[in-house]
Design brief:
about 180 residues, 8-stranded antiparallel β-barrel, 12 strands, alpha+beta
Length: about 180
């Protein structure tokens, strides 16, 4: 009984140290390419983040980051409209990433989690830079995935086809 009480108190102590992070600002860019056009970079600043972390330990970062797919915009509104059709954003309006663990090695980080896109869930790892000054946490992330892994057929026009690979780059600024 005493051992159980100690374990409960330890778990509560760990939980009590976790702080909810408040999203200040950021952006996420989803880069892909088609032959002759390497600047397909729809981006959004419309990000919802529900994250927590122990103030002192960056590797305790956990939670969810999501975006409305309709908020992804590039420099070409016609292309954006077609992108929304391909993503079926009317049927699957959001993409969400659930952080399950963070690993640190030599000042670099790996963020492990599950991406929920197009009603398909896949484990994805992002490379990251994480700066925690005790009051703020700044994240820079980079990773990639294949559209086809999420049941999305890369669009094509005549003989030109958008590449399957999507590179994700993001910056999040959070308050502890």
């Amino acid at each position: 009984m005493f051992r159980r009480l100690v374990l409960v108190l330890m778990a509560f102590g760990i939980y009590a140290q976790a702080s909810n992070l408040v999203f200040k600002k950021g952006n996420i860019i989803a880069h892909t390419e088609v032959f002759g056009d390497s600047s397909i970079d729809p981006a959004t600043k419309n990000i919802l983040a529900s994250l927590s972390m122990d103030r002192q330990e960056t590797t305790t970062l956990k939670g969810k980051v999501s975006v409305s797919l309709a908020s992804l915009l590039s420099d070409n509104s016609k292309r954006d409209s077609h992108m929304q059709e391909v993503l079926e954003s009317n049927k699957f309006p959001n993409a969400a990433y659930y952080i399950t663990s963070v690993e640190s090695a030599n000042g670099k980080y790996k963020i492990n989690g599950m991406l929920d896109l197009h009603n398909v869930k896949k484990n994805i790892t992002f490379s990251a830079e994480i700066v925690n000054d005790g009051n703020n946490v700044n994240l820079k992330i980079h990773g990639s995935f294949l559209m086809s892994e999420f049941g999305i057929e890369p669009p094509k026009l005549l003989f030109l086809k958008v590449r399957d690979k999507v590179d994700i780059n993001g910056v999040l600024e959070l308050n502890i």
